[in-house]
Design goal:
Structural class of chain A: alpha+beta
Number of domains of chain B: 1
Family (chain B): Belongs to the gas vesicle GvpA family.
Oligomer: heterodimer
Distance between the termini of chain A: 35 Å
Largest sheet of chain A: 5 strands, antiparallel
Shape of chain B: flat
Number of strands of chain B: 0
Keywords (chain B): Gas vesicle
Order of helices and strands of chain A: EHEEHHHEEHHEHHEEHE
Number of domains of chain A: 2
Helix content of chain B: 40-55%
Strand content of chain A: 15-25%
Subcellular location (chain B): Gas vesicle
CATH architecture of the largest domain in chain A: 2-Layer Sandwich
Largest interface: A-B, 75 and 55 residues
CATH topology of the largest domain in chain A: Alpha-Beta Plaits
Order of helices and strands of chain B: HHH
Radius of gyration of chain A: 25 Å
Number of strands of chain A: 9
Helix content of chain A: 40-55%
Largest sheet of chain B: none
Pfam families (chain B): Gas_vesicle
Strand content of chain B: under 5%
Protein name (chain B): Gas vesicle protein
Structural class of chain B: mainly alpha
């Protein structure tokens, strides 16, 4: 992954402090920082205060002030480079020690300001770190794909009997068309129903293992690659030792269900659980758009 | 990297990610070693993560604005290849 922000202006020498994550200020954190690079190529280091440590990297002020950040976040290529860089540091660090991932683009003026932040919020950080200790995040996405279901139906249904005249006496082309349309509508409705049932089952099985859950907005748009509509996009906090169980329980749920897909992503550093629990968003039950909706 | 953003290659990357996620625990199971789908990453980095109000941090409102704009960007990404379905 050679995704480094291009065109770093060298003449701008003022540096600010990009914060990736906060952990306990001990040896594993120091180890975690070694060998890592920030978004503009500078090394990652730990800034310590109040028994905590922040993983930071120096970045050019011009690229990370308010204007610079907005420009970066609104440009898809630069956004991806920054997101992947941030993720690379957080994920590597999390393999060494429990850290609290910061939201993308958390920037302080200098190390001193980072120390002050650590000191000011040390109780909150300590509580969150204890909560996340030994846990990882798994993503569970459920998709409804009526077209996939139709394709499966077609391949399962016996081919139209006979080829010449003997078939379906009196079935006019118009009637066949209407039958076909009705079948499609039914498939569409059934697929969403089945997907909803799969989603419920997945949630029940996941809840039995997970210690917390956060529902993300279902994925849409060009980046939401893959067939079908994403109807559930949840994140679960799972004890790392139970990752295998989690995957076994939830992963294969829809394997034999035409038109429904369950995708697991993970393990992740617990991004979705790094904020104090706020008002949980309703999972917004599986949508069933109009019969002919796309 | 540009090619990761559009069309076939991005879809392949997603598929790759899904495949590796369904394998047994192995090297690809490390948190850092996997190529993750950008959209899954953005779900987490733009709505998750601890939020600090620091010196140069965009205020929450600003981040929300960015996200709204971002959605527009995401929708305007035009794949070179037709969608794979």
């Amino acid at each position: 992954m050679a995704d480094r922000a291009p065109g770093v202006e060298e003449q701008d020498t003022a540096q600010v402090c990009y914060v990736f994550a906060v952990g306990r200020g001990d040896a594993p954190l120091q180890t975690a920082a070694e060998g890592l690079e920030g978004p503009t190529g500078a090394g990652v280091r730990a800034v310590y205060a109040a028994g905590l440590g922040a993983l930071v990297s120096s970045v050019p002020a011009g690229l990370y002030d308010e204007e610079g950040l907005k420009a970066q976040l609104e440009d898809m290529e630069r956004l991806e480079a920054l997101a992947r860089s941030h993720h690379a540091v957080v994920a590597s660090a999390y393999e060494h020690t429990t850290v609290l991932p910061m939201r993308l683009a958390t920037v302080y003026l200098d190390d001193g300001r980072v120390e002050a932040m650590l000191t000011e919020r040390k109780d909150e950080f300590a509580a969150l770190l204890s909560r996340l200790e030994g846990q990882v995040e798994w993503g569970v996405k459920v998709y409804a794909d009526p077209r996939g279901a139709s394709a499966a139906n077609l391949s399962e249904a016996p081919a139209a009997p006979g080829g010449s005249g003997t078939s379906g006496g009196g079935s006019s082309p118009g009637r066949a068309y209407l039958q076909q349309r009705r079948k499609q509508r039914n498939t569409h409705r059934d697929t969403y129903r089945t997907a909803g049932a799969v989603a419920e089952r997945a949630a029940a099985l996941a809840d039995a293992i997970a210690t917390a859950k956060v529902s993300h907005r279902p994925q849409q748009g060009e980046l939401a690659s893959g067939p079908g509509e994403n109807i559930v996009n949840d994140a679960y906090l799972v004890p790392a030792a139970r990752s295998d169980d989690f995957r076994a329980a939830v992963g294969g749920l829809a394997e034999d269900v035409p038109g429904v897909r369950v995708e697991l992503t993970g393990p992740w550093a617990p991004y979705s659980f790094a904020t104090p629990p706020s008002t949980p968003r309703q999972p917004g039950g599986p949508g069933e758009p109009d019969a002919d909706g796309e | 990297m540009e090619s990761d953003l559009t069309g076939r290659s991005f879809a392949d990357a997603v598929e790759e990610g899904a495949r590796s996620a369904s394998n047994g625990f192995g090297e690809e199971d490390s948190l850092a070693g996997r190529q993750v789908a950008l959209i899954d990453l953005l779900d987490r980095l733009l709505t998750g993560g601890a939020v600090l109000t620091g010196d140069l941090v965009l205020s929450i409102a600003d981040v929300d604005l960015v996200r709204v704009n971002l959605r527009a960007v995401i929708h305007s990404v035009t794949p070179d290849d037709p969608a794979p379905w």
